[in-house]
Design goal:
Elements lengths: L2 H11 L7 E11 L2 E11 L9 E4 L3 E9 H10 L2 E7 L2 E10 L6 H8 L7 H8 L14 E8 L3 H10 L16 H9 L10 E7 L3 E8 L3 E8 L7 E9 L5 E6 L5 E3 L4 E10 L6 E8 L12 E3 L1 H9 L6 E4 L5 H16 L3 E5 L12 H18 E2 L4 E8 L2 E8 L8 E2 L3 E6 L2 E4 L2 H7 L5
Parallel strand pairs: 2-8, 9-16, 17-18
Antiparallel strand pairs: 1-2, 1-4, 3-4, 5-6, 6-7, 7-8, 9-10, 10-13, 11-12, 11-14, 14-15, 18-21, 19-22, 20-21, 22-23, 23-24
């Protein structure tokens, strides 16, 4: 079964889960008087929508969202491939020839048939393989099967878009001011679909039976918040796998009608859970996979949460090879020390940096303005001074009415990580130091 047939079957088989309404949202580029889809996605909506019809026309760039019915979507999908049209609001959208993306593609055939080929990004390949929810995101909250269709416009259209893509958008009295095309794309689609390449159509088929809404980590427990959709808690089950640094791995099951907690021990390094409907126990509804040894592509949009007592527990243990305290990062010296720690954690086992805590583990706290400023400044420090780029999770906490910031650095996957103009740092106990020659060589993959 090809991707088009699989998409149509999934839409029909899940139609009873939603209203029959499909949200269409996209950005369209005008060429020779016609609009072409730059990025366009379709997603069924669970409840009736009345305020999702909107269009912002900047002349050569159109931002639009609309509601269509399932039959219209099916007819559009059937016509995809050799060129077709779709009406969004009052606009006719031309969809040139193209092809559905597959995780494994024959580059030569695609180049011959569609005048060129673009590699799937890591995000695209990952999303085509996986079905999970991202509750913090407005349109990806339920686990969904994803399908990507690559549009192949002619070279004149592509050249025209590249020519104007950084051109300032016209100022219009009735429209928001947007600096240029790329800014408009990011603003209109937000964080939900940042991973999409240009000239891509994305189709989502959500599973509204159940989802994992959050995973909260405590000192000795995990709390799984599973939200009912069409399934009820009495029919929801879960299986999990726990892996530790110096302890045997652990597996188990939970029944949500009885409990939603999993007991854990110290030095947990991987947690994997799958929820399922007991009526169809071989089918996964949603899952989470947190592995602190590896940098996953979806790590920056994970829904991991921490209990206050768990944060205090880490602080109470003092500084070590994975915990570092910083009272503040105001001057050049404290900023330098912070970046050294980021590099050393990425080059070693990863770790957490607590800001607002002194060297003895006393929680001194930060002002509200410091907290906000640090959360923004840390991103810039890491981006400007660490190479290659390190993914950092930055969160603000309040412990006993005192504000702190925690920066979680995972072990890097492409070492060595370098503090620009300063060197490669390693973690040694509770201190950061420059790597020795032997350590540096051990970080560099053998390319011989």
């Amino acid at each position: 079964m090809n991707a088009k047939e699989d998409l149509l079957n999934n839409l029909r088989n899940t139609a009873h889960q939603y209203t029959g309404e499909i949200l269409v949202k996209g950005i369209f580029f005008r060429f020779n008087g016609a609009f072409y889809p730059l990025r366009l996605f379709f997603i069924p909506v669970r409840n009736k929508q009345t305020n999702l019809t909107r269009g912002l026309n900047y002349g050569d760039l159109l931002l639009a969202e609309d509601i269509i019915d399932l039959r219209t979507l099916e007819e559009f999908i059937l016509a995809l491939g050799e060129g077709t049209q779709l009406k969004i609001l009052s606009y006719d959208i031309n969809v040139p020839m193209g092809y559905f993306r597959e995780t494994e593609e024959d580059q030569q055939i695609i180049c011959q048939k569609y005048r060129g080929y673009s590699n799937l990004t890591d995000f695209e390949r990952k999303y085509l393989r996986e079905t999970r929810s991202f509750p913090k995101y407005s349109l990806m909250q339920w686990p969904s099967k994803k399908y990507l269709f690559k549009v192949a416009p002619d070279s004149d259209c592509l050249n025209s878009y590249h020519k104007y893509s950084w051109t300032p958008l016209p100022l219009k009295e009735t429209l928001p001011v947007l600096p240029e095309y790329h800014t408009a794309v990011n603003w209109w689609l937000g964080n939900d679909f940042f991973y999409l390449n240009d000239w891509t159509l994305a189709f989502y088929v959500p599973d509204f039976r159940a989802r994992i809404r959050s995973v909260r980590f405590g000192r000795d427990r995990l709390i799984i918040n599973a939200e009912e959709g069409l399934s009820t808690h009495s029919y929801l089950g879960a299986k999990y796998y726990l892996e530790y640094e110096n302890r045997s791995a652990q597996t188990g099951e939970i029944t949500f009608s009885e409990s939603n907690e999993i007991q854990i021990h110290e030095e947990l390094r991987r947690f994997y859970i799958v929820i399922f409907d007991k009526n169809t126990p071989t089918v996964s509804l949603d899952y989470r996979d947190y592995d602190w040894r590896h940098q996953y592509a979806d790590q920056d949009i994970s829904d991991i949460e921490y209990e206050e007592e768990n944060t205090e527990y880490w602080i109470a243990g003092g500084e070590n090879d994975v915990i570092e305290f910083k009272l503040e990062i105001e001057n050049d010296n404290t900023k330098k020390e912070f970046i050294e720690t980021v590099c050393s954690f990425a080059n070693s086992k990863g770790g957490r940096i607590f800001i607002g805590v002194d060297n003895n583990g006393n929680i001194k706290g930060l002002t509200a303005s410091q907290t906000d400023r640090y959360c923004k400044m840390i991103h810039d420090l890491i981006r400007n001074w660490v190479e290659p780029q390190v993914q950092a999770k930055i969160e603000a906490y309040e412990i006993r009415e005192k504000k702190i910031v925690m920066v979680n650095i995972s072990i890097g996957q492409i070492p060595p990580y370098n503090y620009k103009d300063h060197g490669v740092y390693m973690r040694s106990g509770s201190t950061d130091r420059l790597a020795t020659r032997e350590e540096l060589l051990s970080l560099i993959p053998d390319k011989r």
